[in-house]
Design a protein that fits this description.
By secondary structure, this protein is α+β, with helices and mostly antiparallel strands. The chain contains 3 helices and 5 strands.
């Protein structure tokens, strides 16, 4: 398979950062994010995490029973102590942010499974493979006919032009 990296997407990938593709699942994979209110709370949490300055959240999708995100963390090459900026800690922050509000709406305390998946991204091609996986995930799951119809998805606008370039079933993701 060939992945074409458009000229207008150059500069999104930064080899100086630690970039990961992460997946968090709801407790017992219950599709709680079919509820628009709960999906909206998760979207708010993803936007909040992106705005903290601790990491760059390149793209994300909230599916009915899980969330995928592509994020980068500084590596500490600037001489600063960035040990608190670990992918696991970013996912914990992400899950804690909406948990109390979601718990009240679903009448339970367990929102998340403890089986977070974190896969390192080693190069630009893998970065875009995973970004396109996120983009196409709702369509491949049969939730929409086109990813542009899905409201719980964020991918840089300049990458939306690449919709359909990747056969998601071939992507190297969990």
């Amino acid at each position: 398979m060939t992945i074409r990296i458009e000229e207008n997407t150059r500069g999104i990938w930064d080899s100086q950062c630690r970039t990961v593709f992460a997946t968090v699942h709801t407790f017992k994979r219950e599709p709680i994010f079919r509820d628009r209110r709960l999906a909206g709370l998760m979207v708010d949490a993803l936007r909040w995490l992106s705005g903290t300055g601790d990491c760059v959240v390149h793209s994300w999708v909230v599916m009915p029973d899980h969330v995928h995100l592509l994020l980068s963390l500084p590596t500490g090459g600037d001489g600063l102590d960035n040990s608190h900026l670990q992918p696991e800690r970013m996912l914990d922050k992400l899950k804690v942010f909406p948990a109390q509000r979601i718990s009240r709406l679903v009448f339970r305390t367990n929102i998340w499974d403890n089986d977070d998946q974190i896969d390192p991204i080693d190069d630009e091609v893998e970065f875009f493979r995973h970004m396109l996986y996120i983009l196409e995930n709702p369509r491949c799951a049969g939730l929409v006919k086109s990813c542009s119809e899905y409201p719980y998805l964020e991918v840089p606008e300049r990458c939306m032009l690449q919709e359909g370039l990747l056969d998601v079933d071939e992507a190297l993701v969990p």
